[in-house]
Amino acid sequence: MSSPARRTTRQRVAINELFDTEDSFLTAQQVHDELVQRGVKVGLATVYRNLQTMGEEGELDAIRAEDGEMAYRRCSPVHHHHLVCRQCGKVVEIGQEETIEDWAREIGSRYGFTETGHELELFGLCAECSGQKA
Q: Under 8 Å CB-to-CB from 94, ≥6 apart: which residues?
């Protein structure tokens, strides 16, 4: 059975347009604030609902920030990881590292799991925020 067609709403179009020009991960509150600033009439609950759906459908990448809140960004469609600056929010996409993939499969296998997946986000301070040269 196929899922029903998703309705394209003006709010979803506005969210897509925002992420077309945004490189940083944004929380629902940050997306809402930016949309309101742009003159879009949208409720915070609508933003949360759209971001969650867009994340589930693969339109946006979602990570759980260190404070536990979900943040979203348009990313590469291939599996990858992120290095995120705790201070300024700068994000670097890190390619699929074979040792991480192998490690996840080995740990899963050791405990009788199959089809083991993972999410990996690394947090630190970028060179600018730590005052070091890149």
A: 80, 81, 82, 83, 122
Over residues 84-101, the pLDDT tens digits come to 888 887 888 777 666 777
pLDDT tens by residue, 100-113: 778 888 999 999 99
3-state SS class at 106 = helix
Max CA-CA distance within the chain? 55
Vertex 62, ends 59 and 68: CA angle to 5°?
160
Q: At 79, list the tokens.
A: 């599996």
Assigned token pair, 97: 């590292």
C-alpha to C-alpha distance for 52 and 56, rounded to whole angstroms: 6
Q: What are the DSSP calls for 32-58, one per residue?
A: HHHHHHTT----HHHHHHHHHHHHHTT
CA end-to-end distance (rounded Å), the chain: 51
Q: How many CB atoms lie within 10 A of CB 32?
A: 21
pTM above 0.85, yes or no: no
Residues 34, 42: Cα–Cα separation, whole Å: 11
